[in-house]
Design brief:
By secondary structure, the protein is of the alpha/beta class. The strands form four sheets. A nine-stranded mixed sheet has the order 2-1-3-4-11-10-9-6-7. Strands 17, 18, 19, 20, 21, 22, 23 and 24 form an eight-stranded mixed sheet that branches. Strands 14-13-12-15-16 form a five-stranded parallel sheet, with helices on both faces. The chain is globular, with a radius of gyration of 25 Å. Bound molecules: xanthosine-5'-monophosphate.
């Protein structure tokens, strides 16, 4: 086996993102423990090495290191964060302890635009920093290729060694993927070309061989992964494929009807289950977000099992794709926690439990694929472009977007609001954009940080709690609303930094909402959310036109009774998650 890029794992929370981004870009990369012997890596014919970030201080006695033999090959090495500092030290530079460090969104000044690592970048870029120790002196002969206000040496190059203090692998460094791609090119790694036709032929053949004359079942939500797989499996199994669509009552307005009619038009065999009564009665009085997800997930499995049993299906087709496997399985997440990679952030109801409970034999033809590849298959199979590019919609549906008790009335209201919000937010090309419904119970909140940034303003803490991510852990935290007339005059990076300082300053706050009008009487609040992300593990709020958003908020507030406020969420992930519960 040959591996193009080896990633040495120093325990940083974004190690998986490095591999994931390289795979998304079409390069082959694998993760190895930091103490892997260089000779072992050379056996794989590696072309480049990345040293990851990590939770350690390079100044500590027991800081993890690599053997100096690594410096003796001519293979390009890129150090990231801790890896950057490790390289600096090994090459004769100095790293100093600091109390201040840099956390969050930071302006990066690129000093060497011609450097191969930074080809395609501009003079100033936004990057994501997360470090305390600071590089004080560059190694002799090294070239400083970028700096920030705090880090004089935010990036360097010396011969075949490159280091960056920030994290190019997270979405908060919007052009970080370009840096990783440049590094792969510096290494001479070859981009794998992907032959969609032969993938489709092979997948159809394999499904046919495995299932034979038996029956297979597939749950179709209406999303691109399951729809594409259903179409592909139909080629293999014809009438022996049974598609099941379960309407939990938490779908968007008329969504289930549309999904079923679309699938039927594509010639698929669809069984439609209306589980909404069961879902609403089971969710009565349930407040905890995990309980909500568990209940919805359980009902989904029950209904699905009934259909499988009644048809005597022996096989289950699942549209699981590589990121689901990389990020979402509990085992993996637990392992990550052991390795200090952070724990389970949310219980995603459809990863894990489904197959084992149903005793069906599982086939997952997309397990190795990334979203962009599924989309290529979808287009090849003639699926409508609207569906191909459809934004992801979570399994528990609008249930993820309502705090407190979920009722039919609340869902109906949110369905109506969602219709307007999706239409209006579409223009920002966000990865995901939607509305959330919260209660309007709140108390005033005084904060110097807010006054210093916005001057005359008002802040409120909502009584409802939401899910966030802090220090790699899932947290249940508070939602802070901030009314100001000045949002539109602030620079976007200032707003990102402001949110970061709020969630950093107040431990219990994990979501920050910009309000353009003061809350009025009413029992509900509405929060608009639009995020930019490739991996959904990290995300930043989409940069929107605040004049447009202000009008949209005002429109929704006037149009629907009982709405106290409508605001736009300015929280990145971390500190908030994408959905509210
Ligand atoms: P969070 O809220 O965890 O969301 O930042 C990340 C992405 O996952 C989706 N999501 C889910 N998808 N079942 C799903 O199928 C779930 O329980 C679930 N919870 C969140 C969310 O919409 C976003 O795309």
């Amino acid at each position: 086996m040959s591996i193009d890029i080896a990633i040495l794992d120093f325990g940083g929370q974004y190690v998986f993102n490095i591999r994931r981004t390289l795979l998304e870009l079409g390069y082959n990369a694998e993760i190895f423990p930091f103490n892997t012997d260089i000779d072992q890596l050379l056996n794989y014919n590696i072309k480049g090495i990345i040293l990851s970030g990590g939770p350690y201080s390079i100044c500590a006695r027991d800081a993890p290191k690599i053997s100096s033999k690594y410096l003796e090959t001519n293979i390009p090495i890129l150090g990231i964060c801790y890896g950057h500092q490790l390289l600096i030290k090994m090459l004769g530079g100095e790293v100093a302890r600091s109390d201040r460090g840099e956390f969050g969104f930071t302006i990066l000044y690129v000093d060497d635009l011609d450097n191969e690592l930074f080809k395609g970048l501009d003079k100033t870029e936004i990057c994501w920093m997360s470090h305390k120790d600071i590089v004080a002196t560059a190694p002799p002969g090294a070239k400083i290729i970028a700096h920030t206000d705090v880090s004089k040496i935010a990036a360097f190059q010396y011969r075949n060694f490159y280091g960056v203090q920030f994290h190019p692998e997270v979405f908060q460094t919007p052009k970080g993927y370009i840096i990783l791609r440049n590094f792969a090119r510096i290494c001479g790694a070859e981009r794998r070309e992907w032959d969609v036709r032969s993938f489709i032929d092979k997948a159809i053949r394999e499904i046919k061989e495995k299932v034979g004359d038996e029956k297979a079942i597939i749950a179709v939500s209406g999303g691109v992964d399951s729809t594409t797989l259903a179409l592909l499996a139909k080629e293999a199994l014809g009438g022996n494929l049974i598609c099941v669509h379960v309407d939990t009552g938490l779908m968007r307005k008329n969504e289930s009807i549309k999904v079923v009619s679309y699938l039927q038009k594509m010639g698929l065999n669809v069984v439609f289950i209306d589980a909404s009564d069961k879902v609403f009665s089971s969710l009565k009085n349930v407040i905890s977000s995990d309980d909500k997800r568990r209940i919805i997930g359980r009902i989904f499995i029950e209904e699905f099992t009934k259909v499988a049993d009644s048809y005597g299906a022996k096989w289950l087709l699942q549209g699981t794709i590589a990121p689901d496997v990389i990020e979402s399985t509990r085992g993996q997440a637990e392992k990550r926690r052991e390795n200090k990679h952070g724990g389970v952030i949310k219980l995603h109801h459809n990863v894990g439990g489904l197959p084992s409970k149903m005793k069906l034999k599982v086939i997952e033809p997309f397990r190795e694929l990334f979203k962009y590849q599924v989309r290529i298959i979808a287009r090849t199979l003639g699926i409508d472009e609207e569906l191909v590019m459809r934004q992801p919609f979570p399994g528990p549906g609008l249930g993820c977007r309502i705090t407190g008790i979920i009722t039919r009335d609340k869902v109906k209201l949110l369905q109506e609001i969602t219709e307007i919000v999706e239409r209006e937010l579409k223009r920002y090309n966000s990865a995901q954009y939607f509305a959330m419904l919260v209660s309007s119970q709140m108390e005033k909140f005084e904060s110097k940080v807010i006054r210093d940034f916005l001057g005359d303003s008002e802040a409120y803490l909502l009584e409802d709690l939401a899910i966030g991510v802090k220090g790699d852990e899932r947290v249940v935290g508070k939602i802070l609303l901030i009314y100001s007339g000045k949002w539109h005059i602030k620079e976007w990076i200032e707003i990102l930094q402001f949110q970061n300082s709020i969630t950093g300053e107040y431990d219990d706050v994990c979501r920050v909402i910009a309000l353009f009008h003061k809350p009025t009487k009413g029992i509900h609040g509405v929060i608009l959310r639009a995020v930019d992300t490739l991996d959904f593990m990290t995300a930043i709020p989409s940069r929107v036109d605040f004049e447009h958003i202000k009008n949209l908020c005002e429109h929704i507030r006037r149009r629907f009774d009982k709405i106290s406020f409508v605001g736009y969420e300015i929280t990145s992930k971390p500190a908030g998650t994408i959905e509210i519960i």
